[in-house]
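dude i think i finally got it to work??
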Amino acid sequence: MKISNKQKMINRKKIIGVAVDIMVDHGFKSATMRAIAKEAEFGDATIYNYFPTKEAILFAYYEEKLNECIENLKKVEKFNEFTFHEQLQTFFDIQLEIFLPDREFIELSFKRIFFSLSQNYIQLEPIRKLFETIIDDFFKAAIEVNEIPEQMFQTIIYQLLWDYYIGVIIFWLNDKSEMFADTGVLVDKTLDLFCSLLKAGTVNKVFDIGSYLFKSHVLSRLEGFKRRVDTLKSIKREFMGN
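look at this
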């Protein structure tokens, strides 16, 4: 019997939810696909129609929560009128709020998938791309209203924000303050500094300086090296000719 796409999404979410509970209760290694399928009330073979491995369920969880964050952002009243800083701040606040009920699972799984980059790069890529899509929307909106100037090497900035995203979650997982207040302060202050630098064009200026230094020093040295190589080749040709 063929099932609808809507039912597939419901089944997928159910499997993820069951897997989270089992991994928290029994640990990642003890959480077998058979145990997850049984608890979710699926056949042993059926679960593989949704996920090839239990590791794939981990990645699906984080992608699902990022999509959930997007849906929650859409529900924020007049979010499109927020400043660039406020949009970034709201994104991080909502993402951590979504993670909160599953904090034990985050502690168990986060480093496993986000810090094994060589092993998990392909599976992690859809999550990173989804994150960049969110950030790109914020940037485009801010640039459109002249809140920040267009940024050189924007993809590098997105990569830095991705690293920042990972760092914030790690800090939150280790935050022992009441209601994770220290994480809130960290995000607020660091985003304030980041947005101020973007507005002032500091990032572009740094890239300009770096580009100048590279051209005036590195490339000039390479040119000098090339001239010396050419001279040596010329001497060798003359020697061989004699």
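The radius of gyration is 25 Å.
im so relieved honestly
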